[in-house]
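Internal QA ticket QA-208
Title: Verify multi-chain structure generation after dependency bump
Assignee: T.L.

Test input:
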Amino acid sequence: MDNQVQTLTEHLRATIWARCLTAAQMKRVETDTFEQFVPKGGFVCRKGEPMESWTGIIDGLVKMNNFSPAGKSVTFTGVPAGGWFGEGSLLKDDRRKYDVIALRDTRVAQMPRATFEWLLETSLPFTRFLLMQLNERLGQFIGLVETDRLLNVDTRVARCLASMFNSHLYPGIEKVVQISQEEIGYLSGASRQSANQALQLLEKEGLVRIDYGGIRVLDVEGLRQFET
DNA sequence: TCATTAAATTGTT
DNA sequence: AACAATTTAATGA
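Actual output:
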């Protein structure tokens, strides 16, 4: 299998925002950023905690989650390996507005706030990357409102998968997630059964391939445009 | 390396 | 939600 374990440094160098940095900037990033292991089911960070770093997923998968006043669990989105998040609260000097929970054993990279702010001030390409990411996420959430209210389960699952790989800023990342259909159900707001049926339909359409314990995305654009 | 078993995940009703 | 079928991982000969 693709069990090639990537080191923190290798992962940092593979991100797109790192490609535009100068050698000196890259050096500081590699020096300051540290790695953290979060076991399956563990918290990467909790709602209400002050933000101390910008967080990237080296390996594994996390979900952004929140609990309604009634105590009901609401999942916003999943973030696969290659994704970075937390810039919103960092920029606003705010606290986390959601829990981040590991769905599998996960390795995360933490870039300290000072390093993040320094990059923001000294690297235009980095700032541009953040703008694109924020814009991408805005579109994603606008789409969610429509998705939630108008569309059927199959389409919801399709858009959910598309958004995870779409963040068109993780280029070249392996389009394979180790995620059970039960977890896909949580991410797309569907029951496990519905997720199962939806995935089988999407596989029939040639958009994904169902593996044991995981999904391989074959056609991101097709998923995004999928409608029943 | 192979067989056995337990645990996780999937498919169906 | 419950059940059966399938796949993987772990164990020991």
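Spot checks passed. Chain A is about 45% helix and 25% strand.
Status: verified.
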